[in-house]
Design goal:
The complex is a heterodimer of chains A (505) and B (338). With 505 residues, chain A is α/β, with parallel strands linked by helices. Chain A folds into 3 domains: 233 residues, Rossmann fold; 177 residues, P-loop containing nucleotide triphosphate hydrolases (Rossmann fold); 69 residues, no CATH class. Helices cover 35% and strands 25% of the residues of chain A. Chain A has 17 helices and 22 strands. In chain A, the strands form 5 sheets. In chain A, strands 6-9-10-3-11-12 form a 6-stranded mixed β-sheet, sandwiched between helices. Chain A has a 6-stranded mixed β-sheet with strand order 18-19-20-15-21-22, sandwiched between helices. The longest helix of chain A has 16 residues. Chain A is globular and about 70 Å long. Chain A starts with 7 loop residues before the first strand and ends with a helix. By secondary structure, chain B is mainly alpha-helical. Chain B has 14 helices and 6 strands. In chain B, α6 packs across α10. Chain B is globular. Chain B starts with a helix and ends with a helix. Classes of the chains: A alpha/beta (505), B mainly alpha (338). At the A-B interface, α10, α11 and α12 of A face α8 and α9 of B. Bound molecules: adenosine-5'-triphosphate (ATP) and magnesium ion. The site of magnesium ion (MG) has 6 residues of chain A, from α1.
Amino acid sequence: MTDKPGLLAVEGISKSFVGFKALDGVDFTVRPGEIHALLGENGAGKSTLIKVLTGVHQPDAGVIKIDGQPVAMRDTQHAQHLGIGTVYQEVNLLPNMSVADNLFIGRQPMRFGFVNRKLMEKQALELLAQYDLHLDVSSDLSRYSVAVQQLVAIARAVDMSGRVLVLDEPTASLDRHETEILFAILRQLRARGFGIVFITHFLDQVYEICDRVTVLRNGKLAGSALTAELPKIDLVSLMLGRALAVATHNTRHDRPVPAIKPFSFKGLGRSRSIAPFDLDIGEGEVIGMAGLLGSGRTETAKILFGIDAADTGHIRIDGHPVLIRTPQDAVACGFGLCPEDRKSDGIIGDLSVRENICLALQAQKGWFNRLSSREQISLADKFVKALDIRTTDIEKPIKFLSGGNQQKVILARWLATNPRFLILDEPTRGIDVGAHAEIIALINRLCDDGMALLVISSEIEEIVAYSTRVIVLRDRAHRGEISGDDITTSNIMQMIAAESEGASA
Amino acid sequence: MIRLNTAALTKAMPQLLSLMLILFLNYLAFPGFFEIRLQDGRLFGSLIDVLNRGAPVIILAIGMTAVIASRGVDLSVGAVMAVSGALAATMTVAGYPLPVVIVAALGTGLACGLWNGILVAYFDLQPIVATLILMVAGRGIAQLITEGSIVTFTEPGLIFFGTGSFAGIPMPILIAVSLLVVAIAVVRRTAIGLLIESIGINRSASSYAGLNSKLLLLVIYGFCGFCASLAGIIIAADIRGADANNAGLWLELDAILAVVVGGTSLFGGRFSILMSALGAVIIQAMNTGILLSGFPPEYNLILKALVIIVILLAQSFSSLGGWAFLKGEFRSKGGKRQ
Ligand SMILES: Nc1ncnc2c1ncn2[C@@H]1O[C@H](COP(=O)(O)OP(=O)(O)OP(=O)(O)O)[C@@H](O)[C@H]1O
Ligand SMILES: [Mg+2]
């Protein structure tokens, strides 16, 4: 195989945002028939490079070449026209339109000048069946979970791409099964000669499916190599610019389970959302919540935090009965929640990093008790430093931060309220390897300081690393609990699987 | 501090330039435009007139800014003006003392606003639909109060709010400016301004952050209704009567326009009450200019549309960094010449 010309290549690309250099002379080539991982820390410039490649941003310098021919990528339509299908990190779909509309918008099958809905819905069903998704394609997209929306976006992009497919963190909200399906499809496309760009923070996935990696660091090209020739340790140091101090995860299983459990939830449930469950949490405990997508993990979090009101059950805190029917009630009890859907439930896009960090504390202090500018600034500075949030300054609107850094800002928002009980729904989603280890360390530190934590995660190794107890969910019910030395990856997997077999039998 | 002010000034550039242009055109049409004189202890002149006539829309725009910043809109303010004006007039004729009349009229406006707020916040109706109900029903209520006739009164206390003056300044201007100062202080000295912007940008995320968005919306719409009734009282006092059919007619559109011209996006979020007031003054300066120039008032509507298009274009130009770009151009040209 002689060195084929790049299907899609960029040379010397630079891009600045108001004085901040997000990309600085980056070269990047995607060859036909390869899956090319684009890696780097949060804020390294991966998404920006993608946006330049696909005509969202115009580069300040450099050329984009397709089949060796320079092109001026005018806009996203132009990119599509040239056969590049893209799923951006912040999925761009229309939540108030049907699933079928979302799949085919702009290219609906027509008959007599009208959209042929029947045909469109039939095609939508067929398309989604390849992803093992069986949805009501005529209902609104917003009815479905983030993961399903992500798959719909991928299905649309794959269907539209002629020869290049670009996926920005497509697997962040997918679980194992869905990821497998996606990979099977990517392998087919590779065999058909597609060039695929794949951004992720899961290094295992890089080694599983990618042929080549390119690493960005602080907007510059740090290196590019064949996956097979680059050991994981070298890859990580390439990304971070230093070796990752592997904090050997001290598992916490030997910790004594506290005898007094100030937070007690009895028979809490909500019809068609989550079956009634009991949960007692003590200070200095981390409860991990494992389960497949749609198993009721997020629903549990929403009930605990008063986003959805429970139909049944009661809550005691420090032995006193309390009612939690709204998030304000929950916050008054010292609760905090970092939600799963960062874009719609987390960030206030046009507000600055500073305002986003102060928001929950301000809401708690009341309308008339304004945090002074000085307090706001020192709070924001403190957390930007503590969580290593990469931003040019704290007055930058949060929507301009990279995905992983937005996630850290939301975490900071709740830490600023100094909660007694913190619920984290997928806290490491979209977080880079370095920060991932830091967040796990942070969870452990908070726990040592006596905070009670409930952490929902799809990464079982991670749950094993910090949990004192693990609750396994399935089919919208709490099915079992594991504690002590029984907390192992295989035990958790077995529990998830055993029950699913039991249910399907 | 100085930097902050220049930044604010740069942002307000399109509006300030438009206002200056309009005032200049007014001056061309009517050379006495900038003359101000003191007569019987009260200021007179076309400029004073612009502010005096503009006061009701300024007041409406203050409430409307909060509503629009929360990603809503209130179509009922014109009708609420009619209701409170009708109530004030009818009660005055019936002989109620002035304080009772004022409190009742303002209270009614507040109640109308709260009704809108309940529909929007607790019943999750879309603001445009929720407030349309009162926009239609309000005029009916006002007619019921006046029993279908135009109620006139001669009670000097109430009339004072429309035509009186204090320290030479007409009452409507004084009321509007006081409300402006209080509203800005409340919004920026407390956390309310930030919280309004937050729910306007992303209500779901704001609720997740523990913000009581329903209560806040209720207060916002209540305040907007209050502002509308204040404007209604001023207009009734000015014409010494209440006309259920025509009082405040179409003024909701002027108020919305004032807010938009002031630069607050209809999609909610960042807002400036001061800029909305400036927007209201721009609109009134145009109205007055047309009147002075002797053009038939029909031209007013067309001209208004034109000016708005220009201002909106200038805004999108400046949000794209256009002014900075132009400045850079001039500077580099100047540099070459040297
Ligand atoms: N529109 C914008 N305006 C200003 N700054 C921006 C804009 N878009 C991106 N940036 C900045 O450019 C840098 C690179 O961002 P980018 O989104 O490309 O990071 P990333 O590598 O995708 O990170 P992540 O892994 O967290 O998604 C960040 O520091 C970000 O704050
Ligand atoms: Mg990114």
